[in-house]
Amino acid sequence: MSNSESHLILVTKSQSGVLRIAINRPEKKNALTIEMYAALAQSIRQGEADTSVRVFLLHGTEDCFSSGNDLKDFLESPPKDESSPVFQFIQAISQAEKPIVAAVNGPAVGIGTTMLLHCDLVYAGSNARFMMPFVNLGLNPEAASSLLLPRLAGYQRAAEVLLLGELFSAEKAREIGLVNSVLPDAEVLEFASAQANKLAAKPFASVLLTKALLKKEDKAAIQRIISEEFQYIIERLGSPEAVEAFNAFFERRKPDFSQFN
Q1: Cα four-point dihedral sign 5, 60, 72, 87
Q2: Does pTM surpass 0.90?
Q3: Pfam families, from UniProt (predicted)?
Q4: Domain boundaries in the chain?
Q5: What is the pLDDT of residues 79-111, one digit of tens each?
């Protein structure tokens, strides 16, 4: 087994060719920092280049997938252009040619949910909870979720989760097509790992070709929308609504948007 140096993103490779990427910051509910985004992007790109890697397996800790951005870290070093680590991670996961299996326990918030749109097989624990709170923060959707979610779930259901930005259950995630199956929490990672091993044992060229064909029609549109959404996010971070939302978060109060048109 080979291991990464970072203790926040743990990377191990099995003899069967499964590259396991674990988000490992449980004391902060696996909130993602710039350093972690960079490590995630590097892990995926190195896995893509490594001919012994056949499948990615992405997961968090026992009771949390990811609570999304570490907002303090995010605001101290906001993304300014497409060289930012968060954009590089979204690019890496959305462009991966090898299949990605995800195991989700507990909260999956913000990018913790949108990254799943770029995974090929997603399995969730019964207590998993999903949320895309971009509007609540005065921002806009990311990672091509404004394109992919309506195609996956239908317009009304996508509008409900993106416009209201409320928590939704693992069962609802399965209903709208975001996850393949809902399992008892204790069984999720083992089941996802078994599925990854099944994929790793199949004819590799056929797996790659099948994924490429499945993604071919939307490939250019996804990259275009990722860039467009990202530019809007950079602009929105300086908006009065976003400033109020973030201030309210850190001051632990309810935001007041009534003063803005």
Answers
A1: positive
A2: yes
A3: ECH_1
A4: 1-183+206-261
A5: 999 999 999 999 999 999 999 999 999 999 999
DSSP classification of residue 66: B
| Contacts (Cβ under 8 Å, ≥6 apart) of 141 | 114, 132, 134, 149, 162, 229
- The partner residues of 80 in beta bridges, in order of sequence, read none
**Which residues, at least 6 apart from 15, have a Cβ–Cβ distance to it below 8 Å?**
none
| DSSP codes joined into one string, 100-164 | EEEEE-SEEETHHHHGGGG-SEEEEETT-EEE--TGGGT----TTHHHHHHHHH-HHHHHHHHHH
Angstrom distance (rounded) from CA 97 to CA 207: 10
Distance CA(99)–CA(101), nearest Å, equals: 7
Q: Which CATH number fits domain 1-183+206-261: 3.30.930.10, 3.40.50.2000, 3.30.70.920, 3.90.226.10?
A: 3.90.226.10
Report how far apart, in Å, the C-alpha atoms of 236 and of each of 4, 30, 244 are.
Answer: 35, 24, 12
Q: How would you write 10-51 as a 3-class SS string?
A: EEEECCCCEEEEEECCHHHCCCECHHHHHHHHHHHHHHHHCC
Residue type, 199: L
pLDDT at residue 5, as a whole number: 44
Tokens in use for 67?
């609570």
Sign of the Cα pseudo-torsion (34, 179, 2, 210, in order): negative
Distances (CA, A) of 93 to 1, 72, 115, 170, 206: 23, 24, 7, 22, 20
- The DSSP output letter for 202 is S
Please check whether residue 233 is in contact with residue 75, taking contact to mean a CB–CB distance below 8 angstroms. no
